[in-house]
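Figure 2 data, in text form.
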Amino acid sequence: MRKWLGPALSAPVTIWLLIAFAAPLVAVVFLSLHEYSDPFGPLIQTPSLQQFIDIASDSFYYRVVFETIWLSVAVTIASALLGYPVAYWLARMPGKYRALAFAIVLIPLLTNVVVRSLGIILLLSPEGLINIVTGWFGIPPVKTMLFNHGAVIVALTQVFMPFMVLALYDNLQNTSPRVHEAAQSLGASPAIRFLTVDLPLSLPGLKSGTIVVFLMSSTSYVSATMLGGKKVWTTGMLVLQEAMHNLNTSLAAALALVMTVTGLAFAVLATLALNRLMTWRYGGKSRPIALPRFVEPVVNFAGPIISWLLFAASVVLLLLPLGLVFVQSFNDVELATAAGFRGFTLRWYHEVFVSGYYTDSFIVSVKVALAALAVSLVIAVPAAFALARFPFRGRSALLAFWLLPLTLPHVALGVGMLKLLQIYVAVPAFIGLVAIHVVVILPFAITLLTASVIGLDEAQEEAAASLGANGWKRFLLVIVPGLLPGLFATSIVGFLLSFDEVTVTSFLTTARLTTLPVRLYAEASFELRPTAHALSSVLILLTIALLAVVGRFVRLDRLYAR
């Protein structure tokens, strides 16, 4: 009798994603098959491979694509090396302190990518913190740390490492303490135990983190633009350049598809490679790991040292750039990249709050975030009940579709939605922007709310029914109060995700519809004044305050539990 409930509750999310996610991707495919780019031409034309031929016949595009691939691989490796110690530390943290420790990961994760990139600039610039500290020891300043591949890798690692940490943490926290006790009883040291127990059992998390970090870093452009200084080019930068500046949406679409296919190919290869190391998960025989005797003393001696060095580097990379931005917001200098403190001033905050220059953009960001959040909650709550209580055939495939926006490039979504809004001019730009922001929020909202629905006590609903409460009364008086903590946490996270979104928003803003992060990105790209740091500090404090409020209702270490 209730078999129809699961598909019915799943329909709103599925329909929304078909319109605001699948349709833009289909538009990108059609655009890439245009022989010539015509910004105002019809979407469906006679198919042609001319755009792909142009890409394949130009060595510049080859260089950018391969440059993007190796940069993404480097970021993925760095994220794994730095993410493991943090994830292991979080998983072994006592429960009463774990939620607080999780803030080390969540605060950077939910802070605007432009803000974090500004912090990396303050760290690596010729007058940045590194050169200031080395100068104390008489070491000449290094003026070439910015605007190169190394700077971009550092910035992207800082941006995407939290995703790797969360993926690894999911597996490491589920390792039974009895497994560790068994290894310890057999004489395994903590370092050997990590190599022979924790590392193999965390491979599923490493696989997920590797795929997510590679796919997201391969299509990013904000950090690459700010830290690369036009000396480093990525595919995401080219897509933005062709679509927004050259109005060559067909070539931009073809480039987006090339990078999408490349990312999916990497995901398949990474999955196959790591699955070969996890035969025990697929019914195969697992082979015990035996280290040579001469290796054990080296591992026992060097393992803890390397682990603590990587952990310290991870925490510094996650938090120090945010602290530098906050300090710089009070610095009495005209050039925002100079990290040396010259004098205390509040004039940058005065410009932010009193001049009213950012007011319109702030209001636009709040309106978009609130509208996107409201829609996300309305359609994600039924989807969460469908997943948690009403199993139906095809549920796993549908869930995979719902989570696709986490992995497919947002630049492609931006190009596709831009074209659709040009065709359907009756649809206001605000509606298109909200539709895309809902797509960004939904994977997180569905994940968080599903966990909340699973945690509901069905016995209370049965008791209410036995007392004569109908379905609506049970929903309003029993289910909604039980869901309130999860709804509140989802609202805060969703609001921050929408408010801070830059990647896809840059394609859809207009002169009257510019969000605050996009304006901040534009200013940081062309005229970097300390007002950007004052505004960034406000955003950092807003993120910390909202997370603190969430922590009063939901443990922070459970926000991203899957």
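Caption note: The chain has two domains: 1-33+348-528, 57-234+268-344.
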